[in-house]
């Protein structure tokens, strides 16, 4: 007994095949987008910072890249398989190949849904790691030349300063005592009990590039440090904000894409079964491109030989189609007869006859 037996006409088969191709193409582009998103974030963040948990960043975004790459090639194989079964449905192991392809695709999408469910907590954890890493780089700004270059590059390219704002530099011990005149009264006022000094000085890379004028990133060099316009010449936002936007945007968008990919994979699995069985049954009936019945599971699938044969199913489906056509013709005739009777009746009513006169009668 066939499950969901539907008879498709020739045009309906072509339309069904186009739907399958479009769904596979959409899945293919989603896989490519996931790969490019993971690659972009890996190049933008994890390669520019010596992350304490770099292995975690690599695990998250390399996994996203590999997942997107596999989805891309899986659906690329699906395009080839879709072409083969539509034109050569009688090919060897065609039914088994389609079943394996759809099963593997559904399994991979389920794994992707599990990954998507963890994306929100992962984004929060990676944000915490980014904050700790930026703080470490700020502390080593003058002691490690590689960190200095990275921090300057990030602050210039992203037009940011500090972690949340430029005040983070004022709270961080990044200017060692050997770089300062410790006996100066302006320096002593910022000294702490542990011997660290945190003056209101920021690196040059915090300066805004759109300000026409000097950048007062070191107000201690001004005649009156208390009255300066240093904040007007510095980048107002911190560097964590654009990184967080990029990180959350990537992981949250990936979760939405994977959810949509799940819907597409289920749709492709169902439609491809109808498409393949209709193509195979058309070959068995003697005309590859004619209308034929299709189903999700039935006779000729994995050795199933019980139930009505293909000719009987086709006759029953054909009889149903003919009954539907006869019913439509009868409804059309009744509608035409009603319209003709209506126009004939209205033609007998005089033109000067009104509803008001009808009411008087």
TrEMBL record:
Membrane topology recorded in Swiss-Prot or TrEMBL: Multi-pass membrane protein
Gene Ontology biological process terms, A to Z: visual perception
Primary location recorded for the protein, binned into one broad class: membrane
GO CC term (a single one): membrane
Membrane spanning stretches: 20-47, 59-77, 98-117, 251-271
Tagged with keyword Zinc: no
InterPro entries assigned: Peripherin/rom-1, Tetraspanin/Peripherin, Tetraspanin_EC2_sf
Highest taxon in the source lineage: Eukaryota
Swiss-Prot/TrEMBL keywords: Membrane, Transmembrane, Transmembrane helix
The keyword Transmembrane is annotated on this UniProt entry: yes
Pfam families: Tetraspanin
Compartments, record wording: Membrane
Entry protein name: Peripherin-2
